[in-house]
Design a protein that fits this description.
Blueprint: H1 9-24, H2 32-39, E1 41-46, E2 49-50, E3 54-58, E4 64-67, H3 69-81, E5 84-89, H4 92-101, E6 106-112, H5 115-118, E7 122-123, E8 128-129, E9 136-141, H6 142-145, H7 151-156, E10 161-164, H8 168-173, E11 182-185, H9 188-197, E12 202-206, H10 207-210, E13 220-222, H11 225-228, E14 238-243, H12 250-265, H13 268-279
Parallel strand pairs: 1-5, 1-6, 10-11, 10-12
Antiparallel strand pairs: 2-3, 3-4, 6-14, 7-14, 8-14, 9-12, 9-13
Length: 288
């Protein structure tokens, strides 16, 4: 899974003040689920740069389309409510800002639940875990990979490392090199291009998101799980849906939890991931 994304303290502090203020002035009668039904649509925030969870492809008419396992879950939620799914696509920092400010009804974008995020948003039950072979790893060139046999050797080199802005991968990068050596990019595609150009030495990435890139960047590799797993305790291995703060969202959260439970029982979660991985071969990079 993508597992991206640890909200920055600055963003969290700034946005939390506005969100809390809005929530305190909203009455219980302003039920978000009822508002969604009245509007005839549910607005989803996502960052479509991370196959197989959310990404762009070109449809049969050559038009951009956002697909992925997360999008299938969002569509199932919209179908259960009986409304249209409207997707508000931004980079991940934009997703964080939109969900905290209430600009979207929910955000499905490979969220991991953290203590910091609990201060500024609320979450559904977990809906997807990484496959047993997936892990938080290091994407680098084959030439660089040959130089380091252990994670300690990699750390001692104090390399220039990239991570997606606002991500949990950025937090992981802080444990591998000096903060001054970390570069943040809006998308993982941009980080991979920087690695290909020689501007950086490595990218912290979820292995199931990095593997499709190896078909395009044939001189890159992901350092092996044995010895280079940056999340061995699987702290970030469960995805959740993010919602703005406020009691008015509880009925929506409850409905989403019901959809998740039913999708898990019927095997839909696994099927959506399988289908998305097949589609990821068609993924395209899109300039926002």
């Amino acid at each position: 899974m993508k597992m991206k994304k640890l909200v920055s303290v600055v963003l969290a502090t700034t946005m939390m003040m506005g969100v809390v203020g809005c929530s305190s002035s909203t009455s219980d009668s302003a039920d978000k689920l009822e508002q969604i039904k009245e509007a005839g649509k549910i607005v989803l925030g996502t960052s479509p740069d991370f196959p197989p969870s959310e990404f762009y492809i070109l449809d049969e008419n050559g038009e951009k389309q956002i697909v992925g396992s997360d999008i299938s879950l969002a569509q199932a939620i919209a179908d259960e409510i009986g409304v249209e799914l409207e997707i508000k696509a931004t980079d991940f920092n934009g997703v964080l800002a939109n969900v905290q400010s209430g600009a979207v009804d929910m955000a499905i974008s490979g969220f991991a639940q953290t203590e910091e995020r609990k201060k500024v948003m609320q979450f559904s039950d977990g809906y997807q875990r990484d496959d047993s072979e997936d892990y938080q790893g290091i994407l680098t060139t084959k030439e660089i990979a040959e130089k380091y046999k252990t994670l300690d050797e990699f750390k001692d080199a104090n390399l220039t490392i990239a991570a997606q802005a606002g991500s949990i991968q950025y937090e992981m990068a802080l444990k591998l090199t000096d903060e001054s050596n970390i570069k943040q990019y809006g998308t993982i595609d941009a980080a991979a291009l920087a690695l290909d150009a020689g501007d950086i030495d490595a990218v912290i990435i979820s292995s199931n998101s990095g593997e499709p890139m190896l078909d395009t960047f044939t001189d890159m590799t992901i350092l092996p799980k044995d010895g280079f797993d940056l999340d061995p305790d699987a702290m970030y291995s469960t995805n959740v849906i993010g919602f703005p703060l406020g009691d008015e969202y509880q009925s929506l959260i409850d409905l989403c939890n019901e959809v998740i439970a039913e999708a898990r029982e019927h095997g839909d979660l696994e099927n959506w991931v399988t289908e998305a991985k097949e589609l990821s071969a068609q993924a395209i990079e899109v300039e926002e």
